[in-house]
Amino acid sequence: LAKTTQPISMDSYEGQEVNITCSHNNIATNDYITWYQQFPSQGPRFIIQGYKTKVTNEVASLFIPADRKSSTLSLPRVSLSDTAVYYCLVGPIYNQGGKLIFGQGTELSVKP
Amino acid sequence: DAGVIQSPRHEVTEMGQEVTLRCKPISGHDYLFWYRQTMMRGLELLIYFNNNVPIDDSGMPEDRFSAKMPNASFSTLKIQPSEPRDSAVYFCASRMTANTGELFFGEGSRLTVL
């Protein structure tokens, strides 16, 4: 299983763009990269997923370089409500297995 | 769909008592996961099932923990006997193989063992 490494914490201010990078040097060919968000007293919630290059949805963008050994979650113009823990997961999806391990996550604090 | 449903939401018990946590996955999902979250250890995968069959229980801390999935719509995580170090939030999550692999989490069961 690919091990992931993220910064433990980050601080930002409202309206700024936040980029959280995750390292996954031993990512396998079948692995996808998925990011989750967790608010206090709630379970994690899916944000975005990708395999390579760039993926964008209504809440975030995910940048994955050609070697796929890292990925960057980009949150545009954060607000106070984006204060949460963000997890990067690497693993197979679809019919290729189910063991999904969470790392320590990045605690993002957005200040006014 | 109502999402993943867990019960109880909160449980306070005394050391040595049996604790049973329950989970109803989203209908149609074929994977079910049990995670435990503490400040010290973060979010740990305890066990997961595929089509009601346990696939990997290597994360179960010890023999005091057991999990079952008698059918596609119900799973239990049992701790017997419970100890103070079992205090944590226990999350159940489910996913459908045929989609993006997105995990859907329940709201968790907060367990306090005195």
Structure, explained:
The complex is a heterodimer of chains A (112) and B (114). Chain A is mostly beta strands. Chain A has strands spanning 9-13, 18-23, 31-38, 45-50, 53-56, 61-64, 70-75, 84-92, 106-111. Chain A has no helices and nine strands. Chain A has a five-stranded mixed β-sheet, with no helix packed on it. Chain A has a four-stranded antiparallel β-sheet with strand order 2-7-6-5, with no helix packed on it. Chain A is globular. By secondary structure, chain B is an all-beta fold. The termini of chain B are far apart. Classes of the chains: A mainly beta (112), B mainly beta (114).
List the SSEs and their pairings:
The complex is a heterodimer of chains A (112) and B (114).
Chain A: E1 9-13, E2 18-23, E3 31-38, E4 45-50, E5 53-56, E6 61-64, E7 70-75, E8 84-92, E9 106-111
Chain B: E1 5-7, E2 10-13, E3 19-24, E4 31-38, E5 42-50, E6 53-56, E7 65-71, E8 74-79, E9 88-95, E10 104-105, E11 109-113
Short account of what is shown:
The complex is a heterodimer of chains A (112) and B (114). Chain A is mainly β and 112 residues long.
